[in-house]
Structure formats: structure tokens, C-alpha cells
Amino acid sequence: MLTDLHIIQQQAADKENENDLFQSFLKEQNAETIDKIVHQLNKKISTQIDCTTCGNCCKTLMINVTDEEANNLANKLNQPRKIFDENYLEKSTQLMVINKMPCHFLHNNICTVYENRFAGCKEFPALHLPNFIKRLFTVFMHYERCPIIFNVVEALKQEIYFENKINK
To answer: 134, exposed or middle or buried, with CB in 10 Å at 0-12, 13-18, 19+?
Structure first.
């Protein structure tokens, strides 16, 4: 199991062409079958990786925040919503995002608001969700960022014998 981000990032760069071919190959596969394999691999691999040794998602992702999530966390922190927004959010006309990376709430690779974290945080790395093939852009955008994604993708290549197909 590869967890060193520097090695993962180097391998991601080395595998860029291979991953482009893999994405094209995946789009030709049965989506339900791929989902089933990805879900099994995710279940196996995610239990072997301690996210608190990495925390890279909390250090590098811009997380969208809903009004309801901001209200809930502001209440949990006993802050008026206006103060919460000033301290933690960047707003546009359509979106709110956490205004700092790493996240304000990450300390020693531990989320200090874990029970009240935002939906985007709860969902990441999203390998448990359906429609893996339709989310390839996002998966590969995070491939070098997250050891779970990296290892699931590499295991998927082996599971469906992708290496054999490109070496022919």
C-alpha cells in the first residue's frame, strides 16, 4: 500500500499517459461492474490507510459549504453566523467555500469539527458513490492527492487486467 505523497505524485506524473488510456478503457466497460469492483476495493483499501497520517485533502481541497452547514457549525462553535462567515468563508454570488487551506479546522491532521464537518468532507474521496465511470475527471484530479484514490485506481487496473491490455 503506497501512502507517501511524494512517491504518489511522482508515480502520478509517470503514469499520466497510462491513466489517459485507462480512463478511455473504463468508459467502454460495464458501469455497474466497475462500481461493484471499486466499492469492494475502496472498502478494503480505505481500512488500511489512516487518513490522519496524511490529511492532504484538508490541506488542499476547496470545500463548498451550504447555508445549513454554516448555520450548524456556527451554532456548534457558539458563534454568530456573521462572525463565522467572516472568519471561515469566502462568498460569491452562488457559492460559499472555506476561505483557507489548510482548513481552519485541521490541527495535527485531525479535524476538530469532525462530527459537524461539511458534506464535501464527509463524502471525500467519494469512491463509495455510484457512477465511478461518470466521475473519472474528478477521480483523476485527486489521484495524486489522496492515497486511497491512488491505491484504489492502481488496484482496479490489476483487478480488470488493464496492464495486460496495454502491453499487447
So the answer is: exposed
Which H/E stretch holds residue 90? strand 89-91
Is pTM beyond 0.90 here?
yes
Output the nine-digit C-alpha cell for 29.
466497460
Which residues lie below 8 Å from residue 79, measured CB to CB, with a gap of 6+? 87
The Cα-based distances of 109 to 100, 115, 130 in angstroms read 15, 15, 28
| Separation of alpha carbons 119 and 64, rounded Å | 8
CA angle 155, 160, 164 (to 5 degrees): 100
**Distant-in-sequence, close-in-space partners of 43: CB < 8 Å, separation ≥ 6:** 128
Per-residue pLDDT of 62-116, as tens digits, reads: 999 999 999 999 999 999 999 999 999 999 988 999 999 999 999 999 999 999 9
Residue 111 phi, psi (nearest 5): -80, 120
| Cβ atoms < 10 Å from Cβ of 59 | 14
Q: How many other C-beta atoms are found inside a 10 Å radius of the C-beta of residue 89?
A: 18
- SS (HEC) of 18-47: HHHHHHHHHHCCCHHHHHHHHHHHHHHHHC
